[in-house]
């Protein structure tokens, strides 16, 4: 589909700093946008509907699925997450670079649907630091921390399937590494 090269998929284990790095990138480069996914998980403190996610009930999410308004979705640690068609297709058509911060299964599905998209995996410096960041964020119960750390191992095993890899040691350096990847793909990427 035309405009696939404008799609950038970012994945990485929970707590690795994806949202922090992408927020920094968008602040420095406002011509880049990001998608707002739909989810059935409860909002964390400070999260806003329509900004962090479109928060939905399970029934509402399933309704969107039935109406083909969600291009890919998955269940992650007991909740639905999905990318709304409306969040990506307009931007692809208009040539606006857009970032999807989604987990590995969704990334694979986006790459199958839009082979011209670029997938980037964000790695933590090491597993101890990942656990420290996840705990320091202070948003998850102990049970959820454990589930997310277990899932992290599985996700890192899939990192070889990604087009590009960056390590989030320092936020600013990682955001600039991501920006270099985007610049390079926009200049050289194939567009259907
Ligand atoms: P993710 O989106 O991957 O789940 P977050 O962006 O929420 O991760 O970051 C998890 C925690 O780690 C947050 O408290 C954030 O402030 C912190 N963090 C992110 N990047 C770094 C970094 N490079 N160094 C230290 N702490 C970081
Ligand atoms: P969190 O609950 O920490 O916000 O997100 C949990 C995981 O779901 C993260 O890896 C995040 O990137 C992923 N995620 C968020 N939105 C989507 C989406 O629309 N689709 C898929 N497949 N994963 C998503």
From TrEMBL:
Stretch forming the signal peptide: none
InterPro entries, sorted: GK/Ca_channel_bsu, Guanylate_kin-like_dom, Guanylate_kinase, Guanylate_kinase_CS, P-loop_NTPase
Compartment annotation: Cytoplasm
A GO CC annotation given for this chain: cytosol
Its EC number(s): 2.7.4.8
Keywords: ATP-binding, Cytoplasm, Kinase, Nucleotide-binding, Transferase
Keyword hit for Transferase: yes
Pfam families hit by this protein: Guanylate_kin
Binding site for ATP: 12-19
Sample GO molecular function, one term: GMP kinase activity
Membership in a protein family: Belongs to the guanylate kinase family.
Cited function: Essential for recycling GMP and indirectly, cGMP.
Name by which UniProt lists this protein: Guanylate kinase
Catalytic activity: GMP + ATP = GDP + ADP
Taxonomic path: Bacteria, Bacillati, Bacillota, Clostridia, Eubacteriales
Residues covered by the Guanylate kinase-like domain: 5-183
